[in-house]
């Protein structure tokens, strides 16, 4: 049975609940009954405490009437919801909240003064969550553990180390606590100021930090611009910094992982003296232990009169130096020596040297390679130059007699001479040529003994330029620079190639001189592509690819008749080089009635499926031309019957 008692302005309205068996239904909205004397409390089931106005998620309470009236428990109802609930079917007095937030508990009891009516009384409770508090533990100093409470739920927190006392903690503040002997756990408890029953604790185990050991650098080896280090066993509980000496003190150049005993420092300061610093992981860094510094050895090798001369740097603290050649031990010299001459060399042979210092640790120099030199200068190489399909110049150098070994130095001669590269490769790709005449290249060859040739005769690939001969780009003017091959006195013939977008050849024709007019442009190419082929004395060289974009052409009718006779029934976009665009039709009210993005989309005059309405419509066309520039055109079209 449910009873509701409500008051309206200037009077009391009794809402009577009717009986149908044991079920009752409310036919009017309920509201708290004023001055009713109703009362109930929420009692925590576990502790028998009055919880006041705060409930805990997952913690059971019991509602107990405190009005002092003799009530029939079977006629006392409790409803729960975000506001006063008017449907009373539940006489259960136990309640376990499941979600945080505000809950309104409404009590409906029988009215002893007016039988057949009820008294409505509600209380608002705040439901609080009580999750395990979040915190972090860090053992970063010997004998201490750092605890940081990161939880955002509770009003106050307490930290307990093992079985020690609970100490109040502040959120987001890192505090170091001494570790009692044998304790290995941290417990953090969170509480609310107004709801102490809504509390929870979380426990984490930790491992105390072992005592630090002095680190050691066992070996240092230079590899190009990097340095490889080998250390004694590192302790994973600590952090390590690799430092290099400077004018005043040391500066850190890298953090070294403690999980490995080897480390490579890229782009290392060379020469340099290094040490390894051990610190704890606490921000304050209470522990600091360093190794003895170990210095690099910088080695140079030169060949003079058939002898290889070695020189290296020294910090003066080494007992001896071992010199290796091509990976084999060559000599052992005093720690005070800084140079060595190797006379047992063969001209034209390359030797690779290293110097290793022995002391409290080993330091191995960079590799220094040198080729024993002697003999006259070789002839200049034969050089070829040709553009590839990416407008890069491919250079091919052939030393006299196809000599093996040695190196070729390639140079570009445009507005000024630029050395591109010295390499043992017989080919080189100039990825950034200047597409302006004259563009020429030379090469010189250094043989295995270090003797260098004169520069080769300059070779100049063709530079091709293409420009539209008229506004509609129905013809193209082509000009080019003359080709110069390695045999400058030999005649040159030219062939003009017209290319497709994928660089396949569409057409070819022979041309003479340095200019021509092309009036036979391919029909369906929005960008016309050309390449010139030069032939001389069995050599073929290609120019750069020159392009000319062609303008978009749009042809739109002024009217169409969507009457279903099969003639001129739709409006379609026609023109040249139309692939992707925006075509919009707007009626006289400014409303968009059609939008198309490719030539297959047409307008039959209908708007939202309705028959065409005769009249004048505005259209707007917008696209990008082959060069990416906007092309915009507007017009009108008449819809006729």
Overview of this protein structure:
With 641 residues, the protein is mostly beta strands. Residues 1-29 have low confidence and may be disordered. It has no helices and 55 strands. The chain folds into seven domains: 4-128, Immunoglobulin-like; 135-205; 217-295, Immunoglobulins (Immunoglobulin-like, Sandwich); 299-371, Immunoglobulins (Immunoglobulin-like), CATH 2.60.40.10; 382-446; 464-549, Immunoglobulins (Immunoglobulin-like, Sandwich), CATH 2.60.40.10; 553-639, Sandwich (Immunoglobulin-like). The strands form 15 sheets. Strands 19, 20, 23, 29, 30, 32, 33 and 34 form an eight-stranded mixed beta sheet that branches. Strands 21, 22, 24, 25 and 26 form a five-stranded antiparallel beta sheet that branches. Strands 43, 44, 46, 47 and 48 form a five-stranded antiparallel beta sheet that branches.
Describe the protein's topology.
Elements: E1 4-8, E2 11-15, E3 18-20, E4 23-25, E5 40-44, E6 54-56, E7 61-65, E8 77-81, E9 94-95, E10 101-110, E11 118-128, E12 135-141, E13 144-149, E14 156-161, E15 167-169, E16 174-178, E17 185-191, E18 200-205, E19 217-223, E20 226-231, E21 239-245, E22 250-256, E23 262-265, E24 273-279, E25 288-290, E26 294-295, E27 299-304, E28 307-312, E29 320-325, E30 328-334, E31 339-342, E32 350-358, E33 362-364, E34 368-371, E35 382-387, E36 393-398, E37 407-413, E38 417-423, E39 427-430, E40 440-446, E41 464-468, E42 476-480, E43 493-499, E44 505-511, E45 515-518, E46 527-536, E47 539-542, E48 546-549, E49 553-555, E50 559-560, E51 574-576, E52 581-586, E53 592-596, E54 615-624, E55 630-639
Parallel strand pairs: 6-11, 19-33, 50-55
Antiparallel strand pairs: 1-2, 3-4, 5-7, 7-9, 8-10, 10-11, 12-13, 13-16, 14-15, 14-17, 17-18, 19-20, 20-23, 21-22, 21-24, 24-25, 24-26, 27-28, 28-31, 29-30, 29-32, 32-33, 32-34, 35-36, 36-39, 37-38, 37-40, 41-42, 42-45, 43-44, 43-46, 46-47, 46-48, 49-51, 52-53, 52-54, 54-55
């Amino acid at each position: 049975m449910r009873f509701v008692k409500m008051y309206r302005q200037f009077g009391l309205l009794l809402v009577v609940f009717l009986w149908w068996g044991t079920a009752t239904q409310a036919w009017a909205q309920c509201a708290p009954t004023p001055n009713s004397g109703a009362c109930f409390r929420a009692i925590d089931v576990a502790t028998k405490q009055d919880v006041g106005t705060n409930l805990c998620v997952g913690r059971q309470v019991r509602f107990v009437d405190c009005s002092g009236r003799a009530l029939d428990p079977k006629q006392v109802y409790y409803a729960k919801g975000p506001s006063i609930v008017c449907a009373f079917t539940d006489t259960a007095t136990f309640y376990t909240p499941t979600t945080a937030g505000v809950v309104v508990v409404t009590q409906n009891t029988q009215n002893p003064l007016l039988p057949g009516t009820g008294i409505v009384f509600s209380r608002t409770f705040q439901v609080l969550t009580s999750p395990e508090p979040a915190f972090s533990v860090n053992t970063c100093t010997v004998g201490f553990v750092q605890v940081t409470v990161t939880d955002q739920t509770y009003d106050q927190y307490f930290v307990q180390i093992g079985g020690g006392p609970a100490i109040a903690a502040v959120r987001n503040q890192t505090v170091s606590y001494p570790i009692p002997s044998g304790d290995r756990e941290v417990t953090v408890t969170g509480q609310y100021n107004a709801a102490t029953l809504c509390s929870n604790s979380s426990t984490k185990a930790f491992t105390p930090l072992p005592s630090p050991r002095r680190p050691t650098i066992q070996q240092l080896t230079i590899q190009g611009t990097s340095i490889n280090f080998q250390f004694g066993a590192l302790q994973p509980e600590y952090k390590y910094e690799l430092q290099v000496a400077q004018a005043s003190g040391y500066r850190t150049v890298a953090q070294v992982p403690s999980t490995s005993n080897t480390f490579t420092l890229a782009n290392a300061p060379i020469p340099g003296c290094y040490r390894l610093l051990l610190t704890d992981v606490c921000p304050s860094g209470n522990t600091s232990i360093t190794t003895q510094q170990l210095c690099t050895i910088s080695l140079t090798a030169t060949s003079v009169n058939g002898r290889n001369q070695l020189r290296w740097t020294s910090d003066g603290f080494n007992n001896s130096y071992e010199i290796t050649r091509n990976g084999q031990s060559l000599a052992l010299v005093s720690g005070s020596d800084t140079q060595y001459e190797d006379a047992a060399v063969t001209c034209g042979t390359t030797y690779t040297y290293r110097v290793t210092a022995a002391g409290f640790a080993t330091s191995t120099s960079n590799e220094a390679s040198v080729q024993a030199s002697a003999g006259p200068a070789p002839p200049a190489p034969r050089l070829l130059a040709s553009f590839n399909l990416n407008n890069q110049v491919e250079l091919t150098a052939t030393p006299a007699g196809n000599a093996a070994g040695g190196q070729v130095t390639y140079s570009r001669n445009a507005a000024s001479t630029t050395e591109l590269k010295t390499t043992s490769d017989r080919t080189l790709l100039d990825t950034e040529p200047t597409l302006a005449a004259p563009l020429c290249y030379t090469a010189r060859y250094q043989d295995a003994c270090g003797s260098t040739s004169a520069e080769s005769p300059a070779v100049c690939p063709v530079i091709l330029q293409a420009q539209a001969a008229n506004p509609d780009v129905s013809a193209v003017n082509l000009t080019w620079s003359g080709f110069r091959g390695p045999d400058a006195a030999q005649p040159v013939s030219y062939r003009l190639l017209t290319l497709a977008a994928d660089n396949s050849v569409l057409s070819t024709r022979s041309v003479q001189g340095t200019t021509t007019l092309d009036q036979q442009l391919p029909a369906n190419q929005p960008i016309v592509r050309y390449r010139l082929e030069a032939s001389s004395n069995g050599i073929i060289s290609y120019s750069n690819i020159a392009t000319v974009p062609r303008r978009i052409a749009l042809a739109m009718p002024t009217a169409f008749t969507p009457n279903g006779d099969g003639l001129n029934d739709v409006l379609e976009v026609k023109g040249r080089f139309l692939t992707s665009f925006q075509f919009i039709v707007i009626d006289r009210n400014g409303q968009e009635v059609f939008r198309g993005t490719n030539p297959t989309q047409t307008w039959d005059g209908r708007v939202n499926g309705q028959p065409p309405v005769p009249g004048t419509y505005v259209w707007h066309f917008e696209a990008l031309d082959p060069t990416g520039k906007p092309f915009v055109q507007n017009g009108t079209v008449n819809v006729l019957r």
